[in-house]
Input
Amino acid sequence: MREFEKNIRKVEPYVPGEQPQNKVIKLNTNENPYPPSPRVTKALEEMDTDRLRLYPDPACAALTEALADFYHVKPEQVFVGVGSDDVLSMCFLTFFNSEKPILFPDITYSFYKVWANLYRIPYECQKLNGDFRIVKEDYAKENGGVIFPNPNAPTGIYEELDMVEEIVRRNQASVVIVDEAYVDFAGRSAMELIDKYENLIVVQTFSKARSMAGMRIGYAVGHPRLISYLNDAKYSFNSYTMNQAALVCGVEAVKDREYFEEGLHKIITTREWAKVRLGELGFRYLDSSANFIFAAHPKYDARELFEALKENGIYVRYWGSERIEQYLRITVGTREEMEALFEFLEKYVGN
Ligand SMILES: *Cc1c(COP(=O)(O)O)cnc(C)c1O
Output
């Protein structure tokens, strides 16, 4: 090691799913298989590029107001960022500043550990139970903050709002972040609770249900006091996080409620059909409420199946980590993409 390297901040980075540039059936990073709202296309086509000379609105007012309208909250309860990864990272930096460990599940979004390490936040993972469910009692101990996704990833399991509320209620001495990247496919959002609990922050994204992973838009909704702390951190880091195109397209996407709801319906229908098909082929799967299914086959090794799928141009996600070494996470694609997946699986398990 060079002398100067002793002073370098070393981090073990998050490893994102592959983004192959050739045409494959891409069921590995939970993107939406359908295009964004036609209003987004129109906005891009009509965009005033002269506007790009100028810095974008640092307050992101138009987008914040559109989201506030959509969710029936006040604009001062909304914070927007460059995908929910940016928003979550900002939340870690802002809200998790205690000597006590933050708590999150052992099997969950692997970025939490990375941010905790990056910002030197102590953390303690809480084991999901044998059915891969969050045990709410585990979050009753002293802590420096709590974060979990609902539905959880990569399990897809959605916990009812009562349970989420209990975790928030028992932790009023710390901030509780509920990462709702997939909640639109699932059920009630914890946003219903934000006027009741000042320590709750709910984070969502345009990447999954709104088909805009490439545009990078995420947001947090919570008490104005929390939002104001988030803004202080943001303005101490980078005032212009959101680019002009994202601000304009984000507003158009939020305004198209009908297209959004139709899209959800298609994914949910395909997901439920895919569960039945997986069951018929002998897979065990968790009862996902998200746009992916976490599945294992008792007779076939997951890594081998993952490689075989990939060789045939079908990408799914595989980690091979403790407790989930026999599971694959399969994003719900279009009906046609899923037919192609099942055509392959039928042959594979038939062998
Ligand atoms: C996809 C995902 C995110 C991040 O999505 P962005 O594209 O950064 O908005 C956050 N949390 C979970 C659990 C996710 O699966």
